Description:
globular, alpha/beta, Rossmann fold
Amino acid sequence: MTRVAIAGLGAIGRVLARALANGMPGLVLSAAATRGRAKAQAWLDGEGIACPLVEPEAFPDHADIAIECAPSAALERICRPMLEAGKTVMVLSAGALLERPDLIALATARGGQIIVPTGALLGLDAVTAAAEGQIQSVLMTTRKPPRSLLGAPYLEANGISVEGLNAPKRVFSGNAREAAAGFPANVNVAAALSLAGIGPDRTVVEIWADPSVERNCHRIEVESDSARFSLTIENIPSENPRTGRITALSVLAALRKLHAPLRVGT
C-alpha cells in the first residue's frame, strides 16, 4: 500500500480525502496537515474519516507521497521534508514551484520526485511530446469570471479593478513566470504548461476578466516542428471559485496511475 498524506483540507483536499477513505486500490490515506486543526478535525469526524492531523514536517514518517493542495506559501514546508527523505510530492501550486528550482535540485540529489498533475488544463501530454522536438511558441489565454480574480496581487499592485464590468477586460499580458507571481491562486495552469513545454519565460499568457463567462476558460495554442494544435477547456468552478472541479479529479487520476495495470497517456 502507498501511504498518502494531504496538505490542505479545502475544496480540493476534501475531495481527495473522501476518495481515499472510500478506498482506492493500493492507496491509503495516512495523514493530513491543515492550518485550522479544530475545523479540520470536526470535518473528518463528520465524514467518518480516521486520519491523524500532523505538521507537514512529519509527513515523511507517515507517508510515501504527499499531495500539496494548500496555499502556495506553504510549499516549502510540505515539499522539502519529503524530498530530503527521497520521497514523492504532488504539487498543485506549480506557480510557486517556478521560484524554487532548489526543490527540483533536492529531488535530483536525494532520489525524490515532484509530480505536477494536469490539473485544470488539458493537452499537457501533447505539449510534453512536442517538447521532445522543437516548440516555436506557446500561448495560453485565460478567461475567468471577474469575482474569481479579486485580490490577485497583480491587480492590486497595478490598481486594476474588475468590479462592475459589462464587457471583457484584459488584465494581464506577459510570460508564465510573471503570471504565476501576479496571480498565484488563479493560473497554476500556466506554470504547469510552461514546465511541460518551453519554460516560464517563453510561454505567453493573457488573462481576461470576462463577465459573460461562468466557468474558468483556458485556451492553449502551440506551434512546433511536429504539430500545430489548439485546445480549449471550460472548467466548472469548485466551492472555491478560483479552482475548477476537475483539478481534484486530475489528482485522483494521477494517483490511480501509480498502481494501474494499464496506464493511458504519456
